[in-house]
Amino acid sequence: MAYEWMVIDRAAVEEELRRVFEPSVVQVMVNVLNQAAVSAVEVTRLDLRDLSGTMHELAQAQARTEARLERLEAIVEQLAQAQARTEARLERLEAIVEQLAQAQARTEARLEELESTVGRLVLAQERTEAQVQRLTDIVGDLKGRMLELVYRGRASAYFGILLQRIRVVDPSDLDDDLRERLTPEEFKDWFRVDLVLSGKPRYRPGAEPIWLVVEISSVIDEYDVARAQKRAAYLQRANYRALPLVAGEKITPGARAFAEAQHVPLSLDGQIYFWDEALDAIPKD
To answer: Beta partners for 212?
Structure first.
């Protein structure tokens, strides 16, 4: 069809050329044009075949590309859905974390309030314990003082079983004998003695008079025993036959063991302990 179209065009061209050129020249020019037209038709046919193959390949490539794009679109859609689900889970997790953070904040606030309350209670407890301790000390001191008065006022009732012709001695009556033998601090400590008694040991015929240096406490501890020993030693230094003695309502186990080991007589709730051992331990003149 393209060739016939070129032949028809050539006849029209030849007629036009005859109007201008010589017949011989026109023939040459027509032949040249004819060859050119034939060559063009052949080239066009080859190009068309090549173009058809190329177009077929492009169509296949396009089909493959579209298939890949469809798969990619499906994957992207799946990823988008997964992303949406992930974001939804993240939002739920963020909401849970926020709730936990708020709960933690409330818990910490309550803990701070509890710590503050506990701190106030601890301070109040410490003040109460301090007050109780002061009251205990006051009560103990008052009981000790009352016991001192009781033992002083009823010395014969408590210690008459131990001494004959018992008498209560004022510590100041011994000033002259002790002042030169004691340091100022010891002399001052002597006047803190609770009770001093003198008399002859009962049931010990021919025994010399002795002096009892008595420490009195509602609950006797080791310090009371040690104080009685120390203050009796003041008199012993002045050549008095003196014995320490502790008296009270109760005694700690340690104080009892200490008194027994040191032969310090004990007057406990009307009962006398370690008296004979103490008398036997007095050095002979």
So the answer is: 197, 243
CA distance 278 to 172: 26
Instruction: Please name the residue ranges forming H helices in the chain.
Output: 2-18, 23-153, 155-159, 175-179, 184-190, 222-237, 253-261, 275-280
Q: What is the DSSP string of 137-186?
A: HHHHHHHHHHHHHHHHHTHHHHHTTTEEEEEEE-GGGGHHHHHTTS-HHH
- Residue 194 · residue 213 · CB < 8 Å: no
Non-local CB neighbours of 236 within 8 Å, separated by 6+ positions: 242
Strand partners of residue 169: 196
| C-alpha span between 51 and 40 (Å, rounded) | 16
- The percentage of the chain sitting over the pLDDT mark of 70, rounded to a whole number, equals 86
Total Cβ atoms within 10 A of residue 14: 15
Residue pLDDT, tens place only, 171-226: 999 999 999 999 999 999 999 999 999 999 999 988 899 999 999 999 999 999 99
